[in-house]
Amino acid sequence: MRKYNASPFQLPARGAAALLIALLAGCASQAPQVAEPVAAPVAPPPPAAPVPQAEPTAPVVLREDAPLRYVVKKGDTLWDIAQYFLRDAWQWPELWYTNSQVRNPHLIYPGDVLTLINVDGRPRLVREGPVERLSPRVREEAIDASLPAIPIEAIRNFLRGPRLVTLEETQRSPYVVAFVDERLAVGANNDVYVKNLPAEVKYSYAVIRVGEPYRDPDSRELLGYEAIPTGEAELREPGQAGQPTALMRITKSNREVLVADRLLPIEAESFDANFYPHPPASPLEGRIISVFDGLSQISQYQIVALNRGSNHGLDPGTVLDIFQSGRVVPDPYGSRAVRLPDQYAGVLMVFKVTPKLSYGLVMNATKPLHVLDKVKKPAPR
N or C: which end of the chain has fewer CB within 10 A? Predict the structure, then answer.
């Protein structure tokens, strides 16, 4: 069909045809009815792009023997209480966080009575009756007495000193060169001579012994060296001109201080006990590469080092499942050995991270754990 240009003196095609028919029929005296142009069909809008959905949270599963009522005791932790109610204790925020009476589970105190109820088909803990704290002084003491997330004493000493050092740090750090008294080793309240203190001398130092190298067991990358704390030292007399040694006093000793032990500035204790446990955002797999104090077998509340850190998505509060690495056994009817499947063996919570390495506290151990056992993102069980 021929197109017409848009002009006030021209009719659309269908209007012109109608006029011609009217004239041929002898109806020239009647004004032709001009049909309105038909609007072009409008294409439907493209479907909206799907909105990315967050990964669903694993459902909270109660223990079969969960109590209906629990009285908080002195010495409890949030993890302890959650273990009475939940199959996976790290899910305690799901049990408490949206509760109108227990908005912050870190403000639960010894003597509080917690009751398990059902709200819209979901388990919730509520506090029986109001807890009166009228005096400002009483409130201040109560905050100090509120329950920690995990047993802080298990990691407090660990947090005070550096735990990972690079080769460059060990080469340029000051070190114990001799003792004031002729001894092979010293402890607290003894004086030592230290060499290579920096120009900007600090008052307090951590005394460490350089231990075994931390290597990624999969890539063999050197992650750093273990820094074994041996004590703490305070400056007494800086070195004089022509005397490269300074006099320092050992104020605290975790073990015997030896000649050649290194000194590093004491790290500020930046650990925040009021965090919520959570799984990593993405699938993750790593290994236990060391255990604090060099034990061969790992159990509950022991500190382990992992070959994964903040570069891999870990942060304080990250919860990981622990798996015993499957043993390799001979095949009685084949020439090749058979690797058995990994077995679930416990759970840990990360509390300190570096870019490539992190430290976690073993919260539960259902089987003996060892160095090189695997850690993974928790999966529904």
Answer: N
